[in-house]
Amino acid sequence: MKGRKLWVIAFLAFMTNGASLLGIGQGSAGSVARAIECNHNIAHNIQMAKALGLLVGNPPIKPNGEFFGTFQVDCSALGMCSVLT
């Protein structure tokens, strides 16, 4: 890299990290990324707290019918009703 390309790359590097190099950390690219991540985490935690807050004090809903699993057995067809009960 010679001349013009080197100065363009140096300028871009200074623009992205120049604020942190000068001691003004709030304007650097890393601090912006951390702020975005922090805002995302705060929003996610607020949503989780609201969702869990709706569940407090409410018992879980029981299903209406009995659950036999994946397969149901008709004991009268097998002639084994006394064994299964």
UniProtKB/TrEMBL annotation:
The keyword Signal applies. Residues 1-21 form the signal peptide. Keywords: Signal. It comes from the Bacteria. The keyword Signal applies. This is Uncharacterized protein.
